[in-house]
Amino acid sequence: MKKAISFLRSMTFGIILLGIIVLLSVIGSLIPQSQSAMTYVTQYPKLYRIILTAGFDHVFTTWYFLAVTAMLCINLTLCSIVRFNAVKNHRFEIEKAASIPAAVQLEPEAVKKVEAALEKEHCRRHEFEGKGTVYTKNEFGRFGTFITHLGILLTVIFWAAAMYLPRIMDETCYPGESIRLEDGTEIYVDSFSIETDAKLDYKSVVNVKLPDGRESGLKEVSVNHPVSMGKYKVYQQTYGTIGKVTVTNAEGVQDEFYLETNDFLSSDGKNGILYDNLYPDFTEENGQMQVISSTSGSYKNPVYVYTVVEDGLQTDVMLAFPQDEQEIGDFTIRFDDPVEYPGLRIKKTPGFVNICLLLSFLVMTAGLYITFFVQPVQVTVMPDGYTVSGYRQEGIRILLKEAAAEETEKEKSDA
Amino acid sequence: MLDILFFSGLVLYFIAMVGMFVAVVFKKDKLNQIAWYLFLAAAAAETLYMIIRGVKAGRLPMSNQFEFAASFSWGIAVILIFIHYRLHIEWVDSFGTAMAFLILSYAALQPREITELMPALRSAWFGFHIGSAAFSYASFLLAGAAGIRYILTYRKNPQDVRLEKMDYMIYRLIAVGLLLLTITILSGAIWAEEAWSSFWTWDPKEVWALITWILYAIFLHLRLGRKKSGVFSAWYAIIAVPVVLFTFIGVNTLLPGLHSYGTVILNMMM
User: Fold this and answer.
1) Chain A 32-71, CB below 8 Å of chain B: which residues?
2) Do B116 and A198 touch (CB under 8 A)?
3) Can you tell me the distance from the alpha carbon of B237 to that of B235, in angstroms, rounded to the nearest whole number?
């Protein structure tokens, strides 16, 4: 049992797990993820069986990837505990250090250089009568690796929470209408616009009203700028364009309708128009008109395509432009300018998750900074040389070696 | 005007690189000094180019593959100058200059026209995320350059007194690179949540940034925990460079994903 725990908390085990994650990540990046089975059959005719059986089509959600990540968490937890106990006991023992004999023997002039170098490094000087002088700095730095590992562990945990706990809904809504959510939250879309310059951007103006009556007020939502209210965040996700007609009857009463493919506009069920589609643009060559079926951004020259139905029989396929009118019996149908509408992503996240994740990010970054840039220094300087002791000594060892060597070089050249 | 500045920087890097290698091989100190000044002139030209381009574009010049490569190369130059003057280390100059030149040469193969920033990139995180990535990759490449120099020096004389410092420099550059890459990944996650509603989407660029991060984290564990330094550490730093380059170039050109706006198809290379 002891052996098993010792292995679970070991660096070897951690490195093996990281190696497996790298390997699986390479596979997951080279093979397109979450495609239909047919895509793998056509793209990888010789490998698709292996891909589908091993779950390489969704590597990052397979049981073995999650198991490796869970084991890494266990490794990090045990490692953090052990590390904390180790670094906690690595306190500077300044008075004890003052009695350590010099491990590096130097001439008095070189010792002065070493002391000057330590002063330049802003080390604290501790003098003891009849003993050596101890220079110390950054005692807290010994916690660096512990904080880093703790930060990574918290990041993995809250990252998983941030990935799996939020509820995400994708909704479309026409300007002037609202989306009502299960808990009574209402998202009202006031307007929507498409920026039509070289780089496409789209913006909605929305108001989020929570069940308790709190409101965000009208706020603009665009890419990179979601609106937050309570546990909700509203993102500008996509957009669409829909055809619209105004129908006027013989008495002059008007009504507006949004058009969807195969909508049949009729007052008697026999005569009317059968709506086919709305196209964004068209070209004209030698009197022949050709509709363009795809575009990005606003529709430049929208064209409505529909069929007139007379006595239940479909007649000619017709084209219409905005403001064109079609008379059907007592009704007049006017084709209006198409309406652009947003596709919004609505995300509901438990309040603590994002804050905890951001704090974990900070802990991890701070840990790395402390590990590499706040290195503890404890040096005993005697009249005949010095000793570097304590935790992580490499940097200061090289620095002092250079300072002493500089003096030795000078002596040589003087001689 | 802008092109003249860009290409003069490129040519100066090339001359400086050749001068440094000749100076190292034939032990010509004077030539080395001149080559270093040429390198500084190249870095100055590149800096000026980046400033003018940024002013013209009205944003930080880091939005596409060309601009990122230029920033990457500039990052190498800035770190090299810091190492040279602040740490008084000159032995990495030649290979570091070669790295800056190669990355800028790659930039030269990309379309250079200034384009408007696409909506997905219009964010306060833009400079922070991409800037830290450029400096992180630059640190890793310079660690690779220091690794090459270590191996060459070691083969010539395993007792060379500079080896200890070279080894320490490789470790420090990787440590700085890892810290910056951490900032890149974490700031990218926060940005992704703002833009795409999710902190992480397993997009190929994210995955390869994570792979790079893990590889260098393993390096640091082996070095600090297992005391794997010296030749092992130098080779590790060298071998990891292609992974960094793949994360930068390969992913954008070969693996389509959410970061594909950084891609410009390499018409000239294909």
Assistant:
1) 33, 60
2) yes
3) 5
